[in-house]
Amino acid sequence: MTFDRSIKIAPSILAADFANFGAEVQAVEAQGADWIHIDVMDGHFVPNLTFGPPMVKALRRHVSTVMDVHLMISPVDAYIDAYADAGADVLTAHVEAGPHIHRTLQAIRGAGMKAGVALNPGTPASAVAHVLDLCDLVCVMTVNPGFGGQSFIDMSDKIAELRRMIGDREVHIEIDGGVDTKTAGTVVQAGADVLVAGSAVFRGGSVEDPAPYGENIRNIRAAAEG
Ligand SMILES: O=C(CO)[C@H](O)[C@H](O)COP(=O)(O)O
Ligand SMILES: [Fe+2]
């Protein structure tokens, strides 16, 4: 996985058909998705439950691009090797998920993955100031994590502050939550390059009729680049 600053659209499978993930990720990839975003929730760190390493491992053979795994779990460290074995390319842990984010990020890189750190809307940019050298991605949550389809919370100031803090390091800024054609431009203007979008990508389409996925992705990309 080589670093580039171009806009990347990462559909979140939280908005896909849970009984048909393999075909859904193939469909969005064929329709122009750059990365595939996979939301892991434990019913403890967030008030919702999705799936774990076996599901991610099963998805690996259907995903030919970057598999971007967003862990909304606590604790994290005991599961890092399982996600490496599952084939995650990027593994993101929340800074709020435990007291030792520095150790967690080292362990993620040590297991051969790119390391991401996510910040809830209430968490300041300064929370990651001392771990930026251990990060490949900072994920700015623009909803409170746990559910898809929520309204966007404007975090433009935080995104711009992180962009300044990151300087010339090769660190992606990813935005997660409520990204659509109305909000994509704002977050890119502030400094983001990876846009996660669940409902705004999967809306109106299906595995049988995937063309709306392509139209949605193209529209979000155009809004982001415009
Ligand atoms: O991490 C997440 C929620 O915790 C999801 O990635 C996010 O909500 C994407 O869904 P949508 O685009 O529908 O908001
Ligand atoms: Fe996510």
Outline the structure in words:
- Substrate binds at residues 12, 70, 146-149, 176-178, 198-199.
- The active site is at 39 (proton acceptor), 176 (proton donor).
- Catalyzes the reversible epimerization of D-ribulose 5-phosphate to D-xylulose 5-phosphate.
- Its cofactor is Zn(2+); Co(2+); Fe(2+); a divalent metal cation.
- This is Ribulose-phosphate 3-epimerase.
- With 226 residues, the chain is of the alpha/beta class.
- It has a single domain (8-225), classed as Alpha-Beta Barrel (TIM Barrel), CATH 3.20.20.70.
- Helix content is 32%, strand content 19%.
- The protein is built from eight helices and eight strands; from the N terminus they run βαβαβαβαββαβαβαα.
- It has helices spanning 21-30, 53-60, 80-86, 101-110, 156-166, 184-190, 199-202, 211-225; strands at 8-11, 35-41, 66-72, 90-94, 114-119, 137-141, 172-176, 194-197.
- The protein has an eight-stranded parallel sheet with strand order 1-8-7-6-5-4-3-2.
- Helix 2 runs parallel beside helix 3 and helix 6 packs across helix 8 (211-225).
- The longest helix is centred in the last third of the chain and has 15 residues, at 211-225.
- The two termini are 26 Å apart.
- The model has no long low-confidence stretch (mean pLDDT 98).
- Bound molecules: ribulose-5-phosphate and fe (ii) ion.
Radius of gyration: 16 Å
Taken in chain order, the helices and strands follow as EHEHEHEHEEHEHEHH
Strand elements, count:
8
Number of helical segments? 8
What ions, cofactors and ligands are bound? ribulose-5-phosphate, fe (ii) ion
Strand content: 15-25%
Strand order of the largest sheet: 1-8-7-6-5-4-3-2
**What overall form do the CA principal axes indicate?**
globular
Oligomer: single chain
Task: Return the CATH class.
Answer: Alpha Beta
Structural class: alpha/beta
Active site: 39 (proton acceptor), 176 (proton donor)
Cofactor: Zn(2+); Co(2+); Fe(2+); a divalent metal cation
EC number: 5.1.3.1
GO biological process, one term: pentose catabolic process
